[in-house]
Amino acid sequence: MSSAAALVADAVDADAVVELLRQAVRIPSVTPNESDVARWALGCLNESGAFHAAEMIECEPGRPNVYGSAGGDSGRSLLLAGHLDTVAVDDWERHWAGTERADPFQPCVIDGEIWGRGAADQKAGICIIIEALRAFSRVGLRPAGAVSTWFVCDEESGQPGSGVSLGMRTAASDSPRGVADFAIYTEPTTSAIYTAQMGFLIADIVCIGKSAYFGRPELGVDALKAGHSLLSRLWELSDELRAMVPAHELLGEAFLLVTSVSSGGNIAVPGRFEASLIRKINPGESLDAAAEQIRSVVTDAAAEHSVECSVDFSAPRDHVVGGTPDEVSADHPGVAALAASITSVTGEQARIEGAPYWSEKPFLRDLGIPGVYFAPGDISHCHTPFERVAIDELVTATRTLAHFIAEWCGVEDS
Fold first, then answer.
1. What is the model's pLDDT at position 162?
2. pTM
3. Strands of 304-345, DSSP E
4. Of 3.30.2010.10, 2.40.50.100, 3.40.630.10, 3.40.50.510, which CATH number belongs to 2-197+325-413?
5. Is-contact 130 42, C-beta < 8 A?
């Protein structure tokens, strides 16, 4: 089997996967405008020679998912997933104005790296899936087990009315439990295997007091003073979390981060205070309990200062208040097989790490599909004007994925 896997890995065309990524970056797909890149992805699946079925289905008007099916039915099955959308480009255009990198949708190669919005997050992940499966066709083989691909819309946050996992939620709701034996979601991992991910919730807090002219402050109720007390309580809670919640081996400590505050503006007693925060949730923690902790802190601050306060958990994903954490054992056969493929292709030991982000793998877990994140690219460059992917890493990750598909699913004549 290892010789067949090596044959498929060697059939990956380095120039072809680079060209795929350049094509993908040229197609703007800032959430919620995924239609054009979805049509491109559908065309790639139809033209690859590896897929016996491919379709584009709208989750709602103008918001498509793309699904593909390859392989047979005599080996272990696999789901390969990724998202089609990217974050916005305002920061990119400001930072690189007047330079060769000025257009975020015109990928340029600098020092062996492909620069452009979405290059790492996560069009590289989409492209390595397509090219890894095309490599089977080049040598007259196909996976013996079923391989499904889900390219979904609406993973990224930041655009009004979007970023709530519409695409993955739709794909999961339309699929039976156990649709695959293992999954790889191709978020960037610097080609490490991410077996664990944090959960999160975002809370938007509003405190309402009573505004009053600055010369008669006794007529007002100072919402900013209440907000000051609230912030102190929230930071104290974050410190307490470090003692209450054990640090995770791969993900570190749980914490709470206040991300924005606003109040005042007139020469008057501030009648309104607003704050937003994000809470990191480690595996084993409850999102419901974390939300209740925050509500309790807000209620106490409101009572102390005689203001009205509300809390809105504004980023529901696979949970009504946020996204749940997830972890698969490093001993899982799928993890072991992927680690072995990394070693076979690179000659180096695989790195097992934790994701410093939340993405949509928990939806797959809830379908009974264990999985990991794996793809080229560095998440620390994503959502910034410095997003890029090293060509050597892109090609190596594609060969690794092709090798893994052959080892996990088996191979047969196409």
1. 84
2. 0.95
3. 308-313, 322-323, 326-327
4. 3.40.630.10
5. no
